[in-house]
Amino acid sequence: MVEYKKGVGINFTDILKEKRIEKQETMAIPETLSGQEVADLFQKAYAELTLNIKEHLVDSNVILTTAGLKAQTEFFVDIKGEEDAAGVQVQVNKLNELFKILNPEIKFSMVKKSISPPRRGKRQMVSIQSLLGAERVSKISKIPGVIPFDKSTGWDGFVKWRSSIAKNFGALQETGTKPFVDDEAYTNVLAGLMKGYPDTAIYDFAEWFPTDRSKGMQDSEIPFTGLYSEAEPNYDFYPEHANNPDIKENIQQAGKILQQFYESDWHKQITQELQHHKRNDSWQVGGG
To answer: How many CA atoms, within 13 angstroms, populate the side-chain half-sphere of residue 125?
Structure first.
C-alpha cells in the first residue's frame, strides 16, 4: 500500500502505479495444465468408467478443456433408447463424483436433448465445463461485453458470469455492435468464446457466416488431432490472419498439450483397448 506521511503529501504517481499493478495482478492469466497432468487425472478415473464413456477421455476437445484451454466442450455417446441414456447419466454422475476429488474445477453434465444425425442413430450429448478455462478465456478475450471471471467463485460464479456475458452480448446485438450483427453471430461468438477460440477467428467467422461464403477460410489444423473419432478442436479464420500472433500461439499451445498427453506412458498403455475408437490407424505421435 502507498502510505501517507504527515508533512510529505501524497505521491499520486505512486498511487496510480500501484493501481496499475493491482489491475495487472487481478487480470493475470493462469497457466493451463500440461498434457501429462491431464493424463494423470484421467488415469485415476479411467478404470471406474464404462467403455462408452472412458473412450472419450482421449478426445482432443476433452483433453484441451480439462487442461483449461477451453471453458466448455462436449462429446457424444451412441444410445439406442431411454435405457441407454439413463446409463449415460449414471456414468456422468460417477465422473462428477470422481472429479470432486481429482479436480473440482471440472464438471460434466448430460444435455437432456439427444440428437439423431443421419445414418448414425441417436446420440447423447455430454458437456464438460472448466472453471480454469472460463477464467483464462475471460481474461484473454477483448471482445466487447466479455467480463473477467475468477475461478475461485466456483460453479455459482460461473453460472452468473456466463449469464452476464449472454446479457451483455444481447445488448450489444441490439445496437448492431460488431461482431454481434445478428442472432447467428450472437450464438457463434458466445460458442467461440466458450470453446477458447482466438478473438480474430471469432470475428472472422461471425463476418463470414451470413455471407454467400465465396471467400475461402483457413483451418487451424491443430497438431496431434485426428487420432480418434471425435469432433476436432479446429476452427476457421481468413487466410490473411494465418500469422496472427494470438492464432499462432493458440495452435501451438493446443498442439503441445495434445502431444504431451498422447506421448504419456498411460496413453500408450490404453491404446490397444481403444482401437475401435481410432479414426486413423496410420496416425503417429510426433505428427499432426
So the answer is: 13
Helix axes 131-140, 183-194, angle to 10 degrees: 120
> Torsions phi, psi of 230, nearest 5?
-160, 170
What is the rounded distance in angstroms from the CA atom of residue 121 to the CA atom of residue 77?
10
* Position 242, amino acid: A
What is the SS3 assignment for 127? Answer: strand
Nearest to 242 by CA among 210, 200, 211: 200
Give the mean pLDDT of the chain: 87
What pLDDT is recorded for position 120? 58
Contacts of 95 (CB under 8 A, 6+ apart): 45, 49, 53, 108
How far lies 124's CA from each of 9, 45, 60, 109, 275, in Å? 66, 21, 18, 11, 22
Instruction: Output the pTM of the full model.
Output: 0.87
The total number of residues shown for the chain amounts to 288
| CA 104/CA 82 separation, integer angstroms | 29
- For residue range 237-263, what is the model confidence (pLDDT) as tens digits? 999 999 999 999 999 999 999 999 999
Task: Determine contact, residues 46/57, Cβ cutoff 8 Å.
Answer: yes
Angle at 83 between CA 78 and CA 85, to 5 degrees: 45
